[in-house]
Amino acid sequence: MYNTTYHRASSADDAAKLAGSASEAKFVAGGQTLIPAMKTRLAAPENLIDLRHAGMSGISLDGDMLTIGATTTHAEVAGSDTVRKACPGLASLASHIGDPHVRHMGTIGGSISNNDPAADYPSAMLALGATIVTNQREIAADDFFTGLFETALEDGELVTAIKVPACAASGYAKFPNPASRYAMTGVFVARGSNGVRVAVTGAGSDGVFRWTEAEQALSSSFSADAVSGLKADASGLMSDIHASADYRANLVAVMTARAVRAIA
Amino acid sequence: MSEVTMTVNGRKVSGQCEDRTLLVHFLRDNLGLTGTHVGCDTSQCGACVVHVDGKAVKSCTMLAAQASGSDVVTIEGLAAEGDLTPVQAAFKEHHGLQCGFCTPGMIMAATDMINRYGAGNLDEKTVRAELEGNICRCTGYHNIVKAILAASDDMAKGAAAA
């Protein structure tokens, strides 16, 4: 790892101020992606701004709106009775990220800000119609994920919380890579006030996306059978040493059916 | 350089280290606590698992500076000198190791697992799923799983008797 200078932020404003005055700064929360990337020198920030003490952690439900602080860990989301009741698919998704030790450190804000094309959380944000709250504004999930490792965040802007409308009928199914356990395809299905939304991670060559054909089929009949005849279009999907685009297209359909079954 | 202060195995310690120093290196090199191992150094194998503020984490994937102010427990801090915790005793009794390299991380993960689920509340399927972050290249996991289940049951009996 190249050397870096560590700063501990006491609040979101403090973090933004530190980022504004330091060159080549990166925010670190759980660090479960960034620190491995720094060790392999894929990332070499001159300054690291630690958000774990910035008071941005916690889960609350206000009416139908679930708010999750950006530095809330995967273990906290997975273990929260509030999340389990309001949004069971989200709790289930969090319980299958990485391993128990990674879930004790990794955070929801870090995951969505990094927008790894094989990360789990972006699919939930898109399917649930979440709102991403930053230190400057609120961004709809539909506008937030803009490409591989790319988001709508500007320099010095940081995610402070996520707002998710409660959705009892929500489920997630993933096919983990047998070695890395990252999602080779993960599908989040949500049936709520916005209708049925289906979002796919791990498969798209441009990152997370919505599978509109499945949304239409599930809107007329919400059952695994309704998607059994569908096949995702392989043209926009990744092909790599792990799986071809065709294989992933099949996984998208199979995981969608499993996510629907997890709800029913 | 950072001045890092933390409580390690109940003792307040401080030391100077580079900001990029990983917690595992601070424990091993600055404090001489070499029970915590570096296996893969890529956040996969779990040989470096320690408890930070009561939670099992991979000490190769956390900076010492991030852990400043925290309460850290390593394999050396689990039992009193010359004694074994029920988890350590069960690994010995059920031969939950061969070469022993992964064992400190396995014991720290198992201890955390039993803390979270409660003694006596584990089954084989849960233990195997919970060991996802700890790799053993020798045993095939059978005796490790047996040891964790035995420790969990022993601790439940101990709690009932107390």
TrEMBL record, chain A:
Any one Gene Ontology molecular-function term assigned to this protein's record: FAD binding
Transmembrane segments: none
Signal peptide bounds: none
InterPro entries found in the cross-reference section: CO_DH_flav_C, CO_DH_flav_C_dom_sf, Diverse_Substr_Oxidored, FAD-bd_PCMH, FAD-bd_PCMH-like_sf, FAD-bd_PCMH_sub1, FAD-bd_PCMH_sub2, Mopterin_DH_FAD-bd
All copies of domain FAD-binding PCMH-type, residue ranges: 1-169
Keyword tags: FAD, Flavoprotein, Oxidoreductase
Matches recorded under Gene3D superfamilies: 3.30.465.10, CO dehydrogenase flavoprotein, C-terminal domain (3.30.390.50), Uridine Diphospho-n-acetylenolpyruvylglucosamine Reductase, domain 2 (3.30.43.10)
PANTHER family in UniProt: XANTHINE DEHYDROGENASE SUBUNIT C-RELATED
Name this polypeptide is given: Carbon monoxide dehydrogenase
TrEMBL record, chain B:
Entry keywords, A to Z: 2Fe-2S, Iron, Iron-sulfur, Metal-binding, Oxidoreductase
GO molecular function, a single term: 2 iron, 2 sulfur cluster binding
Signal sequence annotation: none
Record Pfam families: Fer2, Fer2_2
Annotated 2Fe-2S ferredoxin-type domain residues: 2-78
Gene3D superfamilies xrefs: 3.10.20.30, [2Fe-2S]-binding domain
Protein name: Carbon monoxide dehydrogenase
Lineage: Bacteria, Pseudomonadati, Pseudomonadota, Alphaproteobacteria, Hyphomicrobiales
